[in-house]
Design a protein that fits this description.
The chain has 241 residues and is an all-alpha fold. It is built from 11 helices and no strands. It is globular.
Length: 241
């Protein structure tokens, strides 16, 4: 556990000293919320706040896992780390712990901005369910980020992550309510993991559990987890055969 904590602390401190990561992670989702959701939120303010909190959190999953892993794979330091008697579970757990710090920060900033600029509100019990839904619902996107990190080249990871992050967020209903999406996008939306994530978050604000959406997220977790494991094994075989 000491190795996990030390590695997580080192990764977190490194990213805290990197404004190009820290500032967009914390500022980008609230700015989007103020432009796209806050002006016309009205009675739907709570649901829009919940969906945009999901948008904030999955950004960490895509960039800290996807881009971070892809870039580190191309460094001599990564090759050195793999020669040490430390298994991948230790390093992945440390990365998850570090990502959790930034995910919590990004989600909290978004919620504070939403509460300050709209009429969003929830009961104490709904807040607890919302926080749990936000935590668990991020799992498939973290696994997708890991898969991206092991399957994409270092130079291609950032544009691919941006494309996935923005397109999935828009089409999945994290920016706009699904009924307000264009017809073509609205038909595609129900099969996307971000739509299931949005549905679970919005349902949690009313103190209910969207069972069907959770099953969809579980299925995507298995799919993305398989891709991530395959990508890691493939990369391990190429670099250390």
């Amino acid at each position: 556990m000491r190795l996990v904590t030390a590695h997580a602390r080192a990764m977190t401190v490194e990213l805290l000293r990197y404004p190009a990561y820290l500032v967009p992670t914390l500022a980008f989702p609230p700015v989007f919320f103020l432009f796209f959701a806050a002006p016309g939120a009205g009675e739907a303010a709570t649901g829009r706040m919940a969906a945009f909190a999901g948008f904030a959190v999955i950004g960490v999953a895509f960039f800290q896992f996807g881009v971070g892993i892809a870039v580190e794979r191309a460094t001599p330091w990564e090759a050195y780390l793999r020669t040490l008697p430390i298994g991948p579970v230790v390093r992945l757990t440390a990365r998850v712990m570090s990502a959790a710090v930034f995910a919590v920060a990004a989600g909290c900033v978004l919620v504070v901005v939403a509460l300050a600029t709209t009429t969003a509100t929830m009961s104490p019990g709904s807040w607890s369910l919302f926080a749990l839904s936000l935590l668990l619902g991020t799992a498939p996107f973290a696994l997708l980020g890991i898969a991206l990190g092991y399957w994409s080249p270092a130079r291609g990871a950032l544009p691919i992550a941006n494309l996935l992050y923005l397109s999935l967020s828009y089409a999945g209903g994290l920016w706009l309510a699904p009924r307000n999406l264009p017809t073509v996008v609205r038909k595609l939306s129900p099969v996307l993991p971000t739509r299931a994530f949005a549905d679970t978050l919005v349902a949690s604000t009313g103190g209910t559990v969207a069972t069907g959406a959770w099953l969809v997220l579980a299925a995507f977790s298995l799919l993305f987890g398989s891709l991530a494991a395959w990508g890691y094994t493939r990369d391990e075989g190429r670099r250390f055969r």
